[in-house]
Hints:
Elements: E1 8-13, H1 14-24, H2 38-52, E2 62-66, H3 74-78, H4 97-106, E3 111-112, H5 119-132, E4 136-140, E5 154-158, E6 163-165, H6 167-174, H7 181-188, H8 203-213, H9 216-221, H10 229-237, H11 239-249, H12 271-281, H13 284-294, H14 312-318, E7 327-328, H15 332-345, E8 347-354, E9 364-372, E10 375-380, E11 384-385, E12 395-396, H16 403-414, E13 420-423, H17 426-434, E14 443-445, H18 446-454, H19 462-470, H20 478-481, H21 495-522, H22 526-533, H23 536-546, E15 548-550, H24 552-577, H25 586-596, H26 614-621, H27 628-656, E16 664-665, E17 668-670, E18 680-682, H28 694-697, E19 703-704, E20 709-716, H29 719-727, H30 731-739, H31 743-752, H32 761-775, H33 780-787, H34 791-804, H35 806-822, E21 824-826, E22 832-834, H36 843-875, E23 881-886, E24 890-896, H37 900-912, E25 927-932, H38 935-938
Parallel strand pairs: 1-2, 1-4, 2-3, 4-5, 7-10, 8-13, 13-14
Antiparallel strand pairs: 5-6, 8-9, 9-10, 11-12, 15-16, 15-19, 17-18, 20-24, 20-25, 21-22, 23-24
Helix pairs in contact: 1-2, 2-4, 7-8, 7-11, 12-13, 14-21, 15-16, 17-23, 18-21, 19-21, 24-27, 26-27, 29-36, 31-32, 32-33, 33-34, 34-35, 35-36, 36-37
The structure holds a DNA duplex.
Amino acid sequence: MTFGKGCHLHLIDGSAFIFRAYHALPPLTRKSDGLPVGAVAGFCNLLWGELTTTRSQEAPTHLAVIFDAGSITFRNEIYPEYKANRPELPEDLRPQFAFTREATRAFNVPCIEIDGYEADDIIATLSRRAREAGGTVTIISSDKDLMQLVGNGVDMLDPMKNKRIGLDEVFEKFGVAPDRVVDVQALAGDSVDNVPGAPGIGIKTAALLINEFGSLESLLERAGEIPQPKRREALVNNADLIRISKRLVALDADMPLDVGLETLELKEPDPDTILGFLNAMEFRTLTRRVAEKLKVEAPALDADKGTEVQTQATQAATAPFVHDAYEAVRDAAALQAWVARIRERGYVAVDTETTSLDEMRADLVGISLATEAGLACYIPLGHRTGTDDLFGTAQRAEGQMAEAEALAILKPVLEDPAILKIGQNMKYDAKIFARRGVHVAPIDDTMLMSYAMHAGLHNHGMDALSETYLGHVPIPIKSLLGSGKAQVTFDRVPVDQAVRYAAEDADVTLRLWQLFKPMLHKARVTTVYETLERPLVPVLADMEMAGIQVDRDTLSRMSNAFAQKMAGLEAEIQEIAGEPFNVGSPKQLGEVLFDRLQVPGGEKGKTGAYATGADILEDITTLQDAHPQAARLAARVLDWRQLSKLKSTYTDALQDHINPETGRVHTSYSITGAVTGRLSSNDPNLQNIPVRSEEGRRIREAFVAPRGRVLVSLDYSQIELRILAHVADISELQQAFRQGVDIHALTASEMFNVPLDQMTSDIRRKAKAINFGVIYGISGFGLARNLRIPRAEAQGFIDRYFERFPGIRTYMSETVKSAQAAGYVQTLFGRKINTPEINAKGPTAGFAKRAAINAPIQGTAADVIRRAMIRMPAAIADLPATMLLQVHDELLFEVDEDAAATLVARAKDVMEGAAAPAVHFKVPLIVEAGQGQTWAAAH
DNA sequence: GGAGTCACG
DNA sequence: GACGTACGTGACTCCG
């Protein structure tokens, strides 16, 4: 059959499949002879998936896998350094390449590679021919270099995310249509492929320029018209290099290629060939699956070759997800069978389904369990049918155990110290169980494992992990609950659908655990996971469940007072403006100030709106002479904004967070929320309750201790500067901390040659800003803006600082250097923070460097307080005291009045000694304490 | 849903 | 000498 209209060609980027398979799987070897086969196994699995997936609308009629033939292509003649930076292939991957070709042929799929050309050129050429013949094309790849081919009957499919890449996605990535993608790439260059591009120009700027000038050629011709000198020079001086870059990134869609499209027609695989190959590779599971699908007997593996070649990890990554195989557990006998299975295994993945993301309010709807890849069940407990009307006639769905009965059967297992309970974000499920009297322990948590290994690389939600590491997109929760107004709670999901979704969650979690467990060790973060992540879960769960008492009346009174003041300010503001407008709209405010009142210097951002941040408004308030109206208006708006913030975010929203059952506010901490190891707090965020302004601080008066109790606050003094003094090994600073002198004053004294006893507050303030700046990866610009001084002056301060403390400069540059080499930085306790952008070019590099400088310091401080929190419960177990909140360097407790002194002593000891014995700081860690009826008084 | 703004360490 | 920049978060409001 000839290729023509109605035909749909799928072109698989073979290299992408191989690398994806290699990195997703542990280093497996063939049992009989030790041959490395992990990448081959994964490749076969992906290819088989591609052949068996039914995508109704876009099913291929023709199919081919395209490979790169070798490393030398025509591009090396144009530019010898092309792809010269590529790291050496891993030793165990190289020998697997040949097998991936063999596998492709065994699956009866055409396998194309041409010497001197990249796979991308072949894909470009075949795509063009297919289009000219009247057919359509889907390229299976996520490689951005292929995006220039998209459009006009050609699209891409990202095999990992199972996401189509069409015109919109290309535009999103490059800021231009596909036909201008090469122009953008030529300008931006590519550090991975070593395409030079123009120095200092990234994708964003490139797109901007191309869109403005239409094309690369006209841009280069008219480069002299570019207003920004840096950009102009980058283009003028590098025009040749840019043209070369374009030839490197442009794919050759017209290469000599002796492959007829009709030969790519989809063919059934030959069972003997494919099973013979899989059997020879000793892929047990895949052999069985393929045999099943082809409806033939699976060949038995030779006994002397070894029968069990697949480790748990491959099982996890390659066994199919069969939703119909999940069991619905509806009675005690069936649940007892699962309990027996769990006891035999020694571990189980657990997941709960509930009616709310707020664990303190959620009702339990069901529980799922998994004991091995593909073997999972769901226990429906609280599903309802029908609708709630006035009489609440919703019925309990049939065939469900009573919650109490199920929990009674599961409790001994969930609490058994010999049985490991595995979860994804176990804190959530542990709280759900704890509120029902079941105290789950011990636990493992796949989310925390991912965080320990891959902080900074990606998020750690289950869906993302499943896609990345299992190559599987789980059923989206939205497909069950809907979204927006029509969204229902999980108890309204029909049980048969819930089984498929919920059991899959447990299945995915178990598989991730099987994959991650050996990976933790390889990444050398086992200690981090075991000492800083896993033990924190029960501690945080208890703090969150304890909550903190918040006085509604206090908040409500404040709220009313704020509302009144705001109304007054609003009237005044509108009178000055001479017209009514929405004070809360930065856009309208900007127009009033800069257009109507003619304040000069209004700067519009990317969106075309004037910037009206607090710093800008503060500048305007100083224009009393030139623009008295605007100055007054700006001052009023600043006041209004402060009140508006306090009212909406604190006095109003906090009231809504008071739990009706406990009368307290229960935040939720995210362990993986910050890349540095800090916690984050949400719903509500209790880590940003106001304290800096007098008016805002009063919000803390609403956080109270119950009668007979007090709040105790303990916070580390200057912990980040102490850590800096230690890691950068600055003896003067260390000595200052040991002697307990004012560190900012000392810095000022050293820098400005002012004796300590003659220190002024202004000089000290400047030194303080510099000290903080250092922690953040200081820049002259940043310091200048912070201190509102000329940039040259700020730079002078920094120079003097580094002159005085040269060790700091060394520390900073060494940190950046090691991040560039390793791709991550580490805290003193071994936590890794990945820095994937550290070798980027353009402004991104600056961000990444500063983040890399800051991360070990902020992260070490985060580790210290985590260690203190983990030790705290045992240290205060005999006291009538509860740890309630953590605010990065502060812990807040509630304690019986008469035990407050004891608590302070104990908690202080734990906090000050938290680094030992793992790390011995050369400076003391000092904790300051306060107590009172309210948080305001305790701080 | 993104941008702007602002609360905290 | 000039690109544009302090590090890390979460919540609220506007507005397309």
